[in-house]
Structures are given as structure tokens and as C-alpha cells.
């Protein structure tokens, strides 16, 4: 490897929008695969799913009670109850059903099919429960008193036709569209797929994102700090952010400031990565080894600066925090890699602006769901906020939806991670604005 430090491949300042467009232009949604339902949670459906059978597939009871003919309980009251002969039990899952004739009733449980001849269900609380006493609070368990599946029941209230009956197909009809392509599968959607009998579904898989932090000064949480060392927070923050975006995240422990070690680590991780994210080592210092290492990952050519299957472009962006950035593709599969700065706030802001949209694009989400939502809010602050000329600044904020205001949290330093933990938004100060007075309306990116 050449001993000279690699130079930025582009000396101009890129805008935030230009860099994001460049990233998204190189990222394509992952190829669809067939997955078991629980494995498909969080994935994007790639096909319309139609209902094969009506749901529910049969008329069934919405209450524990008695299946009756409406004529038999017409005019029933506590003073003059309708007395019916109980012919048996109908439980959920029952196969052969008794036929309810004139003057008869069948004990029926919630979800059980409505037996032939019955027109309505009277809740058990409207009856004496077959005990011959007053209003029942519930049914006697069949295992404890099977005799209550026979004998007589007194019904104290009338019931209209179809009372407490869930009609066949009242949820969805056979042939209806259950879920449209593009739907993100959460718990309710998984439940619907299971309810209509789908065991697998065709989706775009959740992207596999590998996160690496770099720096010989980094120590893993739980270990003892020594002189000049700090805990590695970036890899935890970015792995958590990747999961929050919908990815499967793999966090690699901090890699020392050695180009050969970093290069070998990245090459080892390519096999399980749809996207690689590094943090640190992208500035202009003598130990910023990400540039040095990525100049030849996978190429076998240490001097060319090219990478097999693509290359990494290191550039400066007109933004604060997060000026130094790197992006490109590496390896035989052209795996996208985003190299983020190492300061904690710079790293996290860069993730939200560039990595999260890349992950959401890999998932196949529509453009409207790729970026974080933003709103307009009025600044509330004790004094004006300063911003560097020609830079788009992202300041941590606390957004109040009820009042439509946003207030700053902490200062603008890119190391102030404690302030970041208490922020729920990013206040955006445009490139041509150097001072923002209280009462000014700003764009606010919502992080929650």
C-alpha cells in the first residue's frame, strides 16, 4: 500500500440533496423472496393478496349464550320467561351441529358456528343459565356440570333475528383484496394473512446492515477505560438506528486505526451485508484510516484507488454537522457502503439523512416513506441561533406538536451526545441563513 494518505476524490462542496440523490441512485430494492409469516414481519409485500375464503367462513356467535329461534323468545321477560328445552352444546370447532327446533335452544360458545334452525343468540346473562334460579353471571363449565347441556333454560329477554351473530363474510369476502403490494407487514397484517390461511408470503427481505466503528481509542461498554480511551457509542447508536429503520443490524466491535485490519474486517463482513456503514476515519487526519483502507478493499490493487465492483468517493458536504462523507460500492456484488464521520452527533445526523433513506429504499418502500417526515414549526429560544454561511445546519430540537413550536436542545457541538438523547427532532437552518431569531418558522425533521 502507498504510504501517502489518499485524497478526497472530489474537491467541491456537495449539497445535502446532491449527496442523498447520489446515494439513492445507486441503491436498488432487494430481490423478493418467499418467507414464513413471522419472518416476514417488517417486510414489504410485493404482490396483491386476495382472500381465498370468506372471513369468518361461517355464521358464528359473538357471545356465550343460547342459540334460539326468535319466535320462541318473543315477549320474554323476567316475570314471564320463555322456557326452552336445551338440546346440547355447540363449542368453537364443533363439527356435527344439533338442529334447533321449536321450543328448543342449544348452549353456544363465542366463535362457535350457529346451528341449523337457530336465528339468534341470547347472552347467558339474559337467562338463568339452566339453573332454575335468577339471572346467570356465566356458564357452568361443561366439564364440571355436563348436565347443564340438557334440561331447561329460562330466557328473560327477547332477541331479534341475527342478534349476536357474526355473519359469514362480514369481515372479508372471498375474492376481496386483503393486502395490496407495497404494504409493510406489521402484526395486524400478519394476523390477517394467517386468518385467511396464508402460511408464507412474497416480500422484499429486511436489509442486512453491518455497522463498523473505527478508532484505537474506542473501548467496548462494560470494559474499563484507560488513559485516552472512550466508550464506543457510535456502533450501538447506528445499529439501533438501522433496526429502527427496518433493517437487520449486525454491529461489529470497534476496529483499531490500522488500514489492513479494517480492510480485512470489511472484506469478511461483505458476505452478510446488503449495506455497510462505517463511522470515523473519513476526515483529513493522519489516522483517518477508512479512506486508506477503502482505497483497495477487494481489489487486490493497493495503489489504484479502485475497488472491485465500484469505488468509494470521499467528499465534503455543505452541512453541519457531518461535513466529511464517503459513499460508493464495494466487492463483487457492488455492496453499497456509506462512510460516516466519527463524532457522535455527526454520525447520527448523517445516518438519518443518508443511511436511513438507503435502507428504506432497499426495503422497496414508496418514496413518501423513505425519508423522515418533516413539519414547519416556530422557534422558541432565549436568543437567536447562529449558523455558518453556506452550510445547512441541523440542530437538535424538542418539538411540541400542540403548540407548533420547536426549541433547541443543547449546543451545536458535534460531540454533545447527551443533548441528542433528549431531542426528538432536527431543526433545519438553510444554507443562506446565518442567524435565526426566536419566532422564526423552521423546517423540523421528526425523529420519533
What characteristics describe this protein?
448 residues; alpha/beta; 5-stranded mixed beta sheet; 8 helices; 28% strand; elongated; disordered N terminus
Overview of this structure, please?
The chain has 448 residues and is α/β, with parallel strands linked by helices. 17% of the residues lie in helices and 28% in strands. It is built from eight helices and 29 strands. The strands form eight sheets. A seven-stranded mixed sheet has the order 1-19-21-22-18-14-17, sandwiched between helices. A five-stranded mixed sheet has the order 9-6-8-7-10. Strand 21 and strand 22 form a beta hairpin. The radius of gyration is 32 Å and the shape is elongated. The N terminus is likely disordered.
Helix content: 10-25%
Q: Into which percentage range does the β-strand content fall?
A: 25-35%
Main sheet: strands, sense, barrel: 7 strands, mixed
- Strand tally is 29
Low-confidence stretches: 1-9, 298-309
Q: Please, how many helices?
A: 8
Structural class: alpha/beta
State Rg: 32 Å
Mean pLDDT: 88
Global shape: elongated
Task: Walk across the major sheet and give the strand order.
Answer: 1-19-21-22-18-14-17
Task: Report the span from N to C terminus.
Answer: 44 Å
Amino acid at each position: 500500500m502507498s504510504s501517502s494518505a489518499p485524497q478526497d476524490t472530489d474537491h467541491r462542496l456537495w449539497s445535502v440533496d446532491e449527496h442523498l440523490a447520489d446515494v439513492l441512485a445507486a441503491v436498488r430494492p432487494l430481490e423478493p423472496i418467499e418467507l414464513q409469516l413471522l419472518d416476514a414481519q417488517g417486510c414489504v409485500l410485493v404482490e396483491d393478496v386476495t382472500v381465498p375464503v370468506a372471513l369468518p367462513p361461517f355464521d358464528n356467535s359473538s357471545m356465550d349464550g343460547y342459540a334460539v329461534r326468535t319466535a320462541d323468545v318473543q315477549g320474554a321477560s323476567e316475570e314471564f320467561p320463555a322456557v326452552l328445552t336445551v338440546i346440547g352444546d355447540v363449542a368453537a370447532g364443533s363439527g356435527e351441529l344439533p338442529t334447533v327446533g321449536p321450543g328448543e335452544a342449544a348452549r353456544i360458545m363465542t366463535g362457535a358456528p350457529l346451528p341449523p334452525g337457530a336465528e339468534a343468540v341470547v347472552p347467558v346473562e339474559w337467562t338463568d343459565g339452566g339453573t332454575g334460579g335468577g339471572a346467570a353471571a356465566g356458564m357452568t363449565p361443561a366439564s364440571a356440570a355436563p348436565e347443564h347441556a340438557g334440561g331447561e333454560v329460562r330466557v328473560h329477554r327477547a332477541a331479534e333475528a341475527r342478534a349476536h351473530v357474526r355473519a359469514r363474510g362480514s369481515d372479508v369476502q372471498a375474492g376481496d383484496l386483503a393486502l395490496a403490494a407495497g404494504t409493510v407487514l406489521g402484526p395486524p397484517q400478519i394476523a390477517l394473512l394467517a386468518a385467511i390461511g396464508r402460511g408464507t408470503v412474497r416480500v422484499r427481505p429486511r436489509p442486512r446492515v453491518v455497522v463498523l466503528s473505527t478508532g484505537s481509542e474506542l473501548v467496548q461498554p462494560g470494559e474499563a477505560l484507560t488513559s485516552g480511551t472512550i466508550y464506543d457509542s457510535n456502533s450501538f447508536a447506528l445499529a439501533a438506528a438501522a433496526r429502527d429503520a427496518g433493517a437487520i443490524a449486525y454491529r461489529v466491535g470497534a476496529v483499531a486505526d490500522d488500514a489492513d485490519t479494517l480492510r480485512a474486517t470489511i472484506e469478511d463482513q461483505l458476505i452478510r451485508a446488503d449495506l455497510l456503514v462505517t463511522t470515523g476515519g473519513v476526515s483529513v487526519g493522519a489516522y483517518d484510516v477508512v479512506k486508506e483502507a477503502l482505497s483497495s478493499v477487494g481489489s487486490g490493487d493497493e495503489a489504484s484507488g479502485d475497488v472491485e465492483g465500484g469505488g468509494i468517493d470521499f467528499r465534503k458536504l455543505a452541512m453541519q454537522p457531518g461535513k466529511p462523507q464517503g459513499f460508493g460500492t464495494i466487492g463483487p456484488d457492488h455492496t453499497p457502503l456509506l462512510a460516516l464521520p466519527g463524532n457522535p452527533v455527526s454520525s447520527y445526523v448523517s445516518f438519518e439523512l443518508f443511511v436511513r433513506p438507503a435502507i428504506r429504499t432497499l426495503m422497496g418502500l414508496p418514496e413518501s416513506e423513505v425519508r423522515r417526515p418533516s413539519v414547519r414549526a416556530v422557534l422558541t429560544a432565549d436568543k437567536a441561533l447562529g449558523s455558518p454561511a453556506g452550510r445547512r445546519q441541523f440542530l437538535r430540537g424538542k418539538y411540541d406538536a400542540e403548540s407548533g413550536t420547536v426549541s433547541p436542545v443543547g449546543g451545536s457541538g458535534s460531540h454533545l451526545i447527551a443533548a441528542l438523547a433528549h431531542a426528538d427532532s432536527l431543526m433545519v437552518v438553510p444554507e443562506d441563513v446565518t442567524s435565526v431569531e426566536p419566532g422564526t418558522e423552521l423546517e423540523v425533521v421528526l425523529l420519533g
